[in-house]
Write a structure and sequence with these properties.
Radius of gyration: 22 Å
Number of strands: 10
Number of helices: 1
Order of helices and strands: HEEEEEEEEEE
Shape: globular
Largest sheet: 6 strands, mixed
Distance between the termini: 71 Å
Helix content: 10-25%
Bound molecules: copper (II) ion
Strand content: 35-45%
Strand order of the largest sheet: 1-4-10-9-6-7
C-alpha cells in the first residue's frame, strides 16, 4: 500500500494523457464550418444544376461555386421526417434574394441567376421559439459567385 499515491498519480497522468489525445483527435476530425467547395458545372443548355440535401441542421454540400450571369437550378431535397427547413440566399447589397421553403421529406427546385460576383450566405431561418434558429445550429453555407 506504500505505492498507492504513486499509482494514483500515474492513473491521473494516464487519464490526463488520454483526455488530451482524445481532444486532439476530436479537433482534428471536426469538420470545418464550410464543407468541401462544390463547383457546379454548366450543362449543355447553359444551366448550372446541382442537388443539395437538407437535414437537421445541415446543407450538403454547403459551399457552392457558380458562374455569374448564368442560370442556376438547385434541386433541394429534405431528408427530415418532421422538421421543415428553408433555403435562403441573400446578398446584403440586393443583387440576389432567394427564399424557398422545403417541407420535411420534400424535393423542390429553385432557380435564380446571380448577377454579381462575391460570396453570399446560404441559411435556414426557421426556428421553434424560443430555441435558437436553425442557422444558429449550423444550418448555413455559402454561395460563391465567380
Ligand atoms: Cu432549418
Amino acid at each position: 500500500m506504500q505505492k498507492a499515491p504513486g499509482q494514483l498519480l500515474n492513473m491521473m497522468a494516464m487519464v490526463w494523457w488520454l483526455t488530451s489525445v482524445g481532444v486532439a483527435i476530436a479537433h482534428g476530425a471536426e469538420p470545418s464550418q464550410s464543407g468541401p467547395p462544390m463547383m457546379i458545372s454548366v450543362a449543355a443548355d447553359g444551366v448550372q444544376r446541382a442537388m443539395v440535401t437538407l437535414d437537421s441542421y445541415t446543407y450538403s454540400p454547403n459551399h457552392l461555386i457558380v458562374e455569374a450571369g448564368k442560370p442556376v437550378e438547385l434541386t433541394l431535397t429534405s431528408v427530415t421526417t418532421i422538421i421543415p427547413h428553408n433555403f435562403i440566399i441573400k446578398d446584403p447589397a440586393g443583387s440576389l434574394s432567394v427564399e424557398q421553403d422545403v417541407s420535411a421529406g420534400k424535393t423542390v427546385i429553385v432557380r435564380f441567376t446571380p448577377t454579381q460576383t462575391g460570396t453570399f450566405p446560404i441559411y435556414c431561418d426557421k426556428r421553434l421559439w424560443p430555441l435558437p434558429s436553425h442557422r444558429d445550429k449550423g444550418m448555413e453555407g455559402k454561395l460563391e459567385v465567380r
